[in-house]
Amino acid sequence: MKVLATIWKEFLTLRRDPGGMALIFLMPVLLVTVMSLVEDVPFRDYRHFSFDIVCVNEDHDTLGDYIEQTLASSGSFHLVKEYEGKPLTKATGMDLVSSGHYRAFLYIPAHATQRLNGKTAIVVQSLMSGFGIMDHPERDTTEAVEIKVVFDPVIQVNVKQSLLYAIEKIVASAENKVLMAKFSEQVKKMTGNNDTMPRPDLSKMIAVTSEKSYEGFDELAMNSVQHNVPAWAMFAMFFIVFPLAGNFIKEREDGSLLRMRLIAGSRFHFIAGKYVFHFFVCQVQFVLMLAVGLFLLPLLGLPRLVIGNEVLHIALAATCISLAATAYGMAVAGAFRTHQQALTFGAISVVLLAAIGGVWVPVYVLPHALQVASSISPLSWGLELCNDVFLRHTDFRQMLPQIGRLLIFAAGCLGLAYFLHNRQNTR
Q1: Helix (H, G, I), strand (E, B) or coil at 238
Q2: To pair with 38 at 20 to 30 A between CA atoms, which of 172, 255, 281, 414?
Q3: Half-sphere exposure (CA, 13 Å, Cβ side) for 310?
Q4: Would 419 be classed as within a structural domain?
Q5: By the 8 A CB rule, do 173 and 199 touch?
Q6: DSSP secondary-structure letter at 426?
C-alpha cells in the first residue's frame, strides 16, 4: 500500500505538470518524426535515387553510345546533354560542374571506340602469338582510352563511388564485347569460315547473389524509420532523468520528502514507488514510439516500422531498457543536491551516451575509438537489443548478452541511488 500511495502521488504530480508531460511524451514524438524525415535520404535505397550527370560524348561510336545507353537505362542516372537549349561541349560541361550547377561531368573523347579496337587487336595478336598462330605484334603505340569523370567537391563520397563503379562496370562489359568480337574476327580470317562465330559473354561466368540471413520478412533493411524510432525511443526514455531528478530534488528542498518518509516509515517504499511509476512512464514512451513508427510515419511517406511477430521479445526488450533508464535517473537524482547540477549533468551525460551509442548515426560508421567507447553506453545496448528483435529475428538465447548488460546496469544504478538517497537524508 505504501508503494501504491507513492505511485499515486507521482501520477498526480505529473498530471499537474503539463510542461513535464509534453517533455516526456510530445517532444519524443516530434523528435522521432523530424529526424526520420531528415535522415530519410541518407538511408534511402539507391534504386530510388536519380542523379543528374553532365555528359559530353565526342566518340559517337560503339563505346560512347554503349556507355550512354547503359547509364540512361539504369534508372539511377539522368544524362544532361544540353544546357539552355544548346549542346554541351567539354569546356561548358567543366564550367557547369565547377560552378556547382551539376555534381558530375562525364567526358567520352573522340575516337574512343577506334582506340579501344586498336588496343584490343594488339591484345588478341599477343595472345595468339604465344601459340605460334600469329606473329608477335610490334611495340604498342596505341594510346589508352581515357574516359574522364569530374566531380563537384561537395558530392557525397558514396554517390561518387557508386557512379565510378557503374562506369567501370560498363566499360569492362564493353571491353569484353570488343575483345570477343576481335577473337571471332581473327579466327574467321585464319579458318576462312564466314559463318557467324559465337561470342560468349564473359561477364556471366561468375554470379554474385545475396540472400537473407534468416527466414522472415521478404523486404527488410535498415532505413531512417527502422533506425530512428528505436534510437530516439532510447534517448527519450533516458531523459526520464529530468522529471525524476527534478521532482526528487524539489521534494528534498521544500521538506516534503522528509514528511513523506516519516509517514511511510521506510525509505525503501518511497524509492520503490518512484521507481515503479517512472518505469511505467518509460514503458508508455516505448509503446508511443512504436505507434509513431507503425501508424504516423507511413502517413508522411516514410517506410513502416518493422517490429516482427515476437511480442514477448518486444515486451522483454522494453522492460529491460525501462529498468535501466529509470535506475539511471534515480542515481542522478541522488547524486546532486540542486536542480542545476542534476539537470545539467543528466542532459550532458545522456547526450554523450546517445552520441557514442549510435542514436544519431549507426555505431558501425563511427570512428574506431568511438566504436570501442560505445560498448559502455546503455543506449547502445538497448538499440542493439531492439535491432536483435526487430531486424535480426533472434531468439531469447541470443538476446541474453544485451539483456544481461542492461539488467546489471539497472541493478548497479538502483543500488547506488538507494545508497545516495540514504546518505543525503542522514546529513
Answers
A1: helix
A2: 281
A3: 18
A4: yes
A5: no
A6: T
